[in-house]
Structures are given as C-alpha cells and as structure tokens.
Amino acid sequence: MDILIKILVITLQFLFTKSQHHPLDPLNPNEISQIHQIITTSHLASLPNLTFHFVDLEEPDKKQVLHWLSSNNQNHSTFPYRQAKVVIRGGGETREIILDLTNGSIKSEHVYTGDGYPPLTLTELLRAARLPFKSLQFKDLVSRRGLNSSEITCFPFTVGWFGESITRRAVKLSCFYRERTTNVFSMPIEGLTILVDIESMQITKIITSGRGTPPLPEAEGTDFQSSGRTNPSPHCEINRSFTMNGHNINWKNWRFHVGFNARAGMIISTASVFDSGRNEWRRVLYRGHVSETFVPYMDPSSEWYYKTFLDVGEFGFGRSAVTLVGLTDCPGNAAYMDGYMAGGDGMPQKVPRAICIFEQYTGDIAWRHTEVGIPGKVVTSGEQEVCLVVRMVATVGNYDYILDWVFKQSGSIKVRVGLTGVLEMKPTTETKANQIKEQIYGPLIAKNRIGINHDHFITYYLDLDIDGEHNSFVKANLKVKKAKGSPRKSYWTVVKESAKTEDDARLRLGTNKVLDLLLVNPNRKTNLGNDVGYQLMTGQPAVSLMMDDDYPQIRASYTKYQVWVTAYNKSERWAAGFYADRSTGKDGLAIWSKRNRSIVNKDIVLWYTVGFHHSPCQEDFPVMGTLTNGFELRPVNFFERNPLLKN
Amino acid sequence: MDILIKILVITLQFLFTKSQHHPLDPLNPNEISQIHQIITTSHLASLPNLTFHFVDLEEPDKKQVLHWLSSNNQNHSTFPYRQAKVVIRGGGETREIILDLTNGSIKSEHVYTGDGYPPLTLTELLRAARLPFKSLQFKDLVSRRGLNSSEITCFPFTVGWFGESITRRAVKLSCFYRERTTNVFSMPIEGLTILVDIESMQITKIITSGRGTPPLPEAEGTDFQSSGRTNPSPHCEINRSFTMNGHNINWKNWRFHVGFNARAGMIISTASVFDSGRNEWRRVLYRGHVSETFVPYMDPSSEWYYKTFLDVGEFGFGRSAVTLVGLTDCPGNAAYMDGYMAGGDGMPQKVPRAICIFEQYTGDIAWRHTEVGIPGKVVTSGEQEVCLVVRMVATVGNYDYILDWVFKQSGSIKVRVGLTGVLEMKPTTETKANQIKEQIYGPLIAKNRIGINHDHFITYYLDLDIDGEHNSFVKANLKVKKAKGSPRKSYWTVVKESAKTEDDARLRLGTNKVLDLLLVNPNRKTNLGNDVGYQLMTGQPAVSLMMDDDYPQIRASYTKYQVWVTAYNKSERWAAGFYADRSTGKDGLAIWSKRNRSIVNKDIVLWYTVGFHHSPCQEDFPVMGTLTNGFELRPVNFFERNPLLKN
What we know:
By secondary structure, the first copy, chain A, is mainly beta. Chain A is built from 8 helices and 31 strands. Among the domains of chain A are: 2-112, Nuclear Transport Factor 2, Chain: A (Roll); 122-208, Nuclear Transport Factor 2, Chain: A, CATH 3.10.450; 286-322 and 400-472 and 499-634, Beta-galactosidase, Chain A, domain 5. The first copy, chain A, is 10% helix and 42% strand. Strand 9 of chain A pairs antiparallel with strand 9 (235-237) of chain B, so a sheet runs across the interface. Chains A, B: InterPro entries: Cu_Am_ox_TPQ-bd, Cu_amine_oxidase, Cu_amine_oxidase_C, Cu_amine_oxidase_C_sf, Cu_amine_oxidase_N-reg, Cu_amine_oxidase_N2, Cu_amine_oxidase_N3.
C-alpha cells in the first residue's frame, strides 16, 4: 500500500510539472510505471526472481531526433515514438527487452548469453550487505575480535574477473566499524572478506586471515567537520539569466538538454550555440556523458587484488547520484532538477535535487586589453567571465565524484571531474612511515592506516556534431624547421593530419609535439575558408600502467589511451561494454575499434579519459580535499571572430 | 615645479597611509625620491645623459628578514637596513650602485662591462616612438602609401641578438594605423621597419620592402566592444574577511606580503600557513614572482625574425602593469594596492590600483562526502571552496598577461597566467585560407591578416622554504611491478628519488611515469614520520622547440626544460640574466646551473615555466578570449591531516 501511494505521489508530481518535451527526455515516472506494468502483466512475470537491472529510454535514431527538433518542436506527428530498453534477470538468465510505450507492447525480447552481467541492483546490494548479520560464523568471528556486530557496516564490492572460464554473479563484502565515528570507511576491519553469491543470495565463504592481522585502528580523529572558517557565500541578489523548461536549458548563447539515467547519471544532449554573426543556432554536441570509470587499486594481496572497479557499469553513476545540498554542493543561486530511475523491483525511484544548474561568477576575466597607442588616451576594455555550470555528484561508496559541465559564452564547454570523499584504507600495525616496507602498496597516511595507491579513469562519451554529423578528426602537430636566409636558425610550423581510421585516432598524450586535437567539419568553412572546428584541450594526462595481459586491464583495455575516435553507432556507448560486471573484455571501445572503421567526414564519436594516479597523503585523511582534472572543448575557427564581442 | 608638487603629493599620500613595515616592503616614493637626490647630488650627476634603468630594494639577507619577522616585528633595532640597488646609464656606460638609505650614502659603485643592457626606460621608448614623425623620409614613405601620418602609431620592439660581436642599444619600430579604429595592433603597416639607435636617439635606417608589400587591411570589424551579454556580477553584501596592513595580507589560515617592482611586477613574500594542529604559523614560500618571459614569434622573414622578446628583462612586468578596472579586471569585493617605481628620470611614479586582492567564491566544492553506511541515516558533509586571489595585469604592447596568485584554505597556492589582448598580425593579400602557403608562418585569422605562430614561456622564481630553508627536491616516479602469487599480474608503486644536484632536477615533463615533484624538508617529519613537503602540480607542458644553437634560444636556453632547481643565491633571480636587452646567453638560469651545485637539504629555489604554443584562430580576433595555464603548490604530508577540517 505504501508503495502504491508513493507511485501516486510521484506520478501526480510529474503530471503537474510543466515540461517541454524533447525526444531524448529521460523516462518519466509514468513511463517507468508503465514499463513495470507491461512486464509484470506479460509472460515474463512468471520468471523466478524477476529483477529489473536496466530501464532506460531506447533512444530514437539521431535523424528522427534532429528532424523533430528542426521542425520547431511543434509537429506532434513527427515526435519520435517513445521506446524503452529494459534488461531483466529471472530464472538465472539475462533478458533484453525493447518496449513500445506508445502502444504499450513488448517489441522484442531475447536472452543474452554473452559474458558479464548487468549492473547490480540496489536491492541486491543491500540484501547482500545484511547477510553477515544472519551468519553465526560471522558473529562469532567478530565477537572473538571484541567487536560489537551492531556497530558493523559491511559494504558489497564487485569482484572483477581473473581469468575464470565460468563466472557467477557475486560480490565480496568488506566490513567497517562505526562505533564512535560517522566516518565508516576510516575504520576497516582487515582480514575478513565475505563472498556472497548474488543469485542464491547466500554467503559462499568467509575468508579470514590468521595471526598478524592488524587490529582495528583508533576512531579518534576520524570524524570530519567543517573548520567553520568559510563564511557562507555572500548574500546576493540574483537575477537568474537561464530558463529551464522541463529538461531544456537556455542560457545566453547556449541551449541544451539535460537528461539523467541510472547508468551515466547526467547526460548533456543537443547542445547548440547561437552564432550572432550568422544569426543561427549551430550544433556542437549531440550527446555527452560519462561512459565508464575504471578504478584499480594497486594492491595485489589476497584481500585487495580484486578491487578494480568499473563503477558506471557495475553500479551506475545515476544510481549513485546524491541529493545535492544547497550551500555545500551548489551555491545559493542554483536551480535543481530531480532524477528518476527504476528500482530493482521495476518501480520508479526519485533522486530529489540530483542535478544543479547555476551561473558561476568566477571573478576571472573573459577578455581584456589596455591600449596605450592612441595619443592622450588609455583605453581599457574587457568583460568578466560568467559561466553556466551543470553539476551532479555520484557517491560510489567511499569516493565522491563531482561532475561538472561548464558552458562558456566563448563557445567553450569545460568538463571537470572533482574527486573527494574518503580513501580506501588498510590497517597496519606500523606507526611510523620509515617502518613501512614497499610491499604495503601505499603510504602511511594516518595512525595505523595505509592509503592504498590507486587510479581513477573517467571516460567520456562525446558525440560531437560540429555543424552537422559529418566531421573529421585532425591532429595538428608542431614541426621544427630550419630557417633559410634569415638571421634566425629555426622556427616551428603546424602540420595538420586528418586521421583516416580509428587506429590513427587512438592517442597516448604527453609529448610536446602535439599542438591541437581538433574535430572539424570538412563540409563547412568559415568565410575565410578555414575548416569549422572544435579543439579538445586535454588536462593532466594519465593512462593505465598495468600490464596489457593483466585481467583488469583486459576488461578496461581502452584506458591505455586517453583519446579514441570511433564511427558513430548508436549501440556503442559504454567503454567497457554494457555487461561490465564480471566482464571479460569481449565488448567495449577497444573491441569496436578493432574494425578500424573510416572516420573521415563521417558521423564520429570522441572518447576522452580523464585520469588520476593517486598515491595518497596525510591531507587526504579523514576526508580528501577535492582534486580536479578535466578537459575543454573550445571553438577553433568555428566562429568568424571572437563570439564574446558584439558584431 | 609641476614635478615638485607631484612628489609632494605622492609623499604626503604615502605618509598618511598607515602601513605596517616589513623588511621586503618595496621602495616607497620617499625612498625613491631620496635615491634620486643622493645620485643627482653625487659625482654621478655629471654623467652625460644620466638615466635610471632599475631602482629597487636591495634585499636584506634572508637571515636578517627572518630574524626580524620572528621577533614579532617589534624590535626596531633589528629591522634590516634599507638599501637600494640602482642601475643607471650615463656617458654610454652602465653603472651598478648600492645605496644605503639609512645614512643616505652610496655604498658601492661599479661599471658593468658585460654583455647586454638594462631595461629600456619608458622615456626612451616614448622618445623612440616619436622619432619617425620628425623624419621627412618616413613622412614621404607613408604619404606615398596614401596614409595620414597623424593617424599612425609606431611601437618600439626590442631587437634581440643574432650573433653580433658588438651590440648597441637599439629598438625597431613597427607602425600601425589607427584611423577608424581603437584596435591599433589590428592595423599593421607592413614592409616598414625603423631602426633606432637608443644612445643617440636617432633613426639609423628605415627599411622598406618593395613591390608586393600587402596593403593595410580594412579597419571594419576591428573594434572590440563587449557583447553586453554578461550581467554585471550579482549585487552582494560582502564582509571582507582579509586584512591589509601596508603590504601585509592576513586571510583565514594565510599570511603573506605583497610587493611590487618595475621588473617582476607583483612579488609574494614570506607566505606562511597556520597549522591549527600544531598551533603555529609554518613557512611555505619565501619569495615568488615572475622571473622572465620569452615570446618568440615563428616567422624568420626579414621583418619578423627578431621578434623574440624577453618582456620582463627588456621592458618589465611592473613597468607594464595597468591600473585595474573594477568589474572588468576584479570583482566588486576587491581591495586594491598601488604600485610605485622610478621613472627614467629617477623620480617616483605611481601605478594606481596595480594589484587587486579579493575573495573568490568559486561555486566549487572544497570537500564533501555522503555517507550511507550508517543505518537509517544519509549524512552529507562538506564545504564550499573560497579562495583569496591576488592579481595584476601586465599589458606589454598588444598582449595582456593576467597574473594570479590564488591562496586556498587547503594550504595550496595556485598560480595562473591568463593570456588575452590583441594578436601580432601580418597583412596578406590572400583572402582565403586555402591560398595561404606554408611559409606564411601562421593561419589566416581575419580578412587579409595572418596571426603569426608564437610561444609564451612565463618562468616563475619560487623560493620555497618548506618549514625552513633546508629543503630537498624529490621526484616520485611510478614503477610497474609484476605481482607474484596473486590472481593479479601487475600493479604500480612509487619510487622516490632525491635530486642530488642541479642536473638531476632539470626536467622536461610530459611522460606518464612522473607522478609527483616534491619539495620536502628532510629535517622535519610529520608525527607519522613522513617527510613534510609541498608538491608542484604542473599544467599543460610546453617547452621551447627552437634549435639549441639558434640565437634567441641561446639567450633563453632555460626554456628547454619546465623545471629547474638551483641552490639559493640572492643574486640569482632573473632566468635570462639581469641584462636581458641584447643579451647573449652568458648569464641566467642555465649558466648558474652549470656549476651543478648540490641541492640536497639545502636552501633551494624551484623554477617553473608555464608554456603556451599559440597558433592563432579566428576567435582570437579582434581581441583574444583569455587562455589560461598555470601550476599549483599543494601540501603533501605537510599537515597531519586535512587542514580544511576542525581539529
């Protein structure tokens, strides 16, 4: 009864929300309920243990979407049919279903028999986490350690794949002690791993290490409280200068669509920038979102080796989205958007305030010049920078990922990833850094705690459509030349090279000779004849260093390069493959790219990986200060002139 | 008489400014006047054409400064003697003079006979720029081109050095047409270079190119006006939370000193951060500032080859500092500091509002975490980021350099360089990009205009004193290891290596294997036994690509590496040598480093070069949007725990 009332409330809330339609609107609660109803009243209802693992819009074809958008959004007859893609499990099988929401029917259905599993549902994770507390063996073990089991929290971790020929759905639980702290992750109970079989929802094995297991570290100093040094941001009178109609945002010279799903979290679609010189909206980004994350920990010991997470595919960034807190997560002038998804039971769930949107007055200077060359005058002109930020936060267990899309009036889109939250730590009996031997896999960062070395690779799917679908990828390299007949001996020049195929576009950055990476539209030129384009300005480069034949690396082989460009294919969205849980590397970006398709003057997709190598330090305890990295997509010969100026 | 009144006004202004003393306070107008008086009443007064090229505080020894600061700033008997270093020219010679301002005497004096010259004075530059308008040949030439000489502005450019065995002080003038535009630099008059001998202040030669010289481009579309799209920043009630006593700034957990001189511009000194855990102020940075810039243009043709500027040494960033404009250059909550320096005549000159200081409410998240592991609760904690920005802008002709020092409560210092202003352009008869041949040295970026390819290398002098003078430089490298006895095959670990000598610390960045560059104090450990340190987080790497034996590269040979560490030596401040004008590479960072001094547990200086390779695009016209790069100095095991939290 409770659930019915909840659905009713959500449905009513939604119906009374004035929203402008867009063909890429995420599934709304009504639609999620409709999907649930269609499936639970079909033959599928009889499947044992029916669970919903993925419920998302089945995207209409790009052509249909663009056609509808270009027809002034008015012609209801051309609004693309709403369809959904659903992945369920039941009877030990994974089924992919396409539903037609217009006539309420199942359009197609088949059993997936390949490697890997769909994302774990929250229900499964919660049920697994509660299992130890019904286990006498567990209770006995912890009480022998002098721990009170009512103060223990166990968290489920995905188990990866290490060459097994047959896999089962499983998680490993690690447990933490929360007596005298709210910083659960700072109190790891070492030497205790609980293997859970998800299908049977039973503990398979409790693995304990013997003597020499370090005891629980002290709770003192683990709580985090703000220093209180920061004033609240100044009280400001804000005239918000953007509009939000449903999922459509309009701000200054930008318009775009903000979607949300359980897997990617926030999705930016159909972003166009207004060109006041041409007096037209021009297309930049068809669709952009986080595609996958890879977080391998650098500890090969028996308790830690498996921690090599593909968070987006195994858990979901939308599933991990938090309700944003005003004045902590977003400033006072922010507007908020809720997120909806299906639970493991197929029913709609709401994440209130999953996304915030705000104007950022950076205090920076967008452009300026002081001219002293006019006799008797000093002329200073310029403009302050104001950006529009679209933000979500995904908290995946201990780590908090701050995900920003920043739109600039210059036509740039900046994408930033901020890492904060709590480290994964390992207790140690050592108390001084010089007692630590190398094989402990990370530095001593707090009393009796090692911060385990690890990486974060956040891979973005960037379906740029610069002035249309047909684009090319250009590498602009610097070439040093000998100067002839000059007092100078040398200079550099730019040599541009169009990548012919996917192989040509797979890049490991870090050399000084690559100047620019560009996506250009070879069919559109500026009035001066330059190829219209956008540049990828990369951040600090980091690629995965693990050996190519190591199992986690096989699953995330795309992390050996920061940049990939692929031919557009609607089904190629998830860099480590769709079935990431226990995947074996048979699907994903590196596999698709093996076809080495032509990418010249084609609809192409850019993939960029933001990477961090993180060897922790004491400042990361008990909670980490935000570490930020990212990239920028910047117009280069896209406009006839600086778009920040009046024409 | 006018000058006397001006001095009086400045002196009175200064006297009535309540200011706390600091041994590194820049020379105040009284002191500058005193220096002028001492010299003009000494035997030096009789030198023909006496001009003042450099007038700066002769820094007291670090020991004296630190002693006075540690004695609670109260003991006047230990306040270091105020001394000044002055470089004058007269009778064709360069003289270095040390003055004692306490007893008003000349302490030492000698004639400099090495290569290169001191910075050009503004008076010299202005006089040189006016010479053409007294030249009949010039007037005749421009009128034959149909140009009105009263609409022409000529700018002086330094001439560099190209292997000449004897050099004279000289500039080359390039001229621009300002009829119908305020964007002077957008209207270059090509094929006309005027060589001026500075000592005789006469035109030596007017060099014209013959037929085929491209005509003046059109003025249409060259003016820059704001789009007006940006709202003024929101009206805020600000409670400023920093104090400014003279040059001393106190803000939250930071205190530091902001100085100014004609050469470096803004100088940050004696920056300490409060450690609430230890309840003490801890030293981080003794002195930091821009040391030199190198801006070579990539056009070896006869009219352009010499454009290879060392702006700081040839002109001075303080000399080029502009008066900051509220709501364009700095937000509404900024406080301002004036800058003082000596003119070519030795008299004090004021740059009103040369520096601004403001709190930046970025909208970013300093740290956060959402904890779901406590039954029945979702706990979100966190804090907004608030920084303190110290900013100046140096406009060196066409380019505007925005120079920010950003202090964070995390203990980080971020240093940013923003490039904006107007490109150096070359007229062309071509109107379409595909007509441009490679040898034109840059792309077509506006009608009949080539934007010449060029670099910017901004080199910072960073005398970090982490918890004291004796520091070491540590490279933390990533090393991939084979895992044994594990389902995993590999992992990375961190191998730290202390640089023994200056050679070991000279680095060209860009490889994926360098994790961290650290300055540590090997004499101070955290309670856990980690070396106390700060990390250099670098930005996009760029080093100079010109051939090693090319003359401009010989002068700026240090730009082949981003990172240098040298043994501290008070006299080693200017990366391309003190006498940068027409320098021949016999002084500077690369030369000092040849001694390959030990840098282990020594007072050491870190040098970092922020680099840009700039191949322009249409968006850079008629004024460039700001392009930003920089670096961060971040505490790593400096604090016992995250300093953003309460203890």
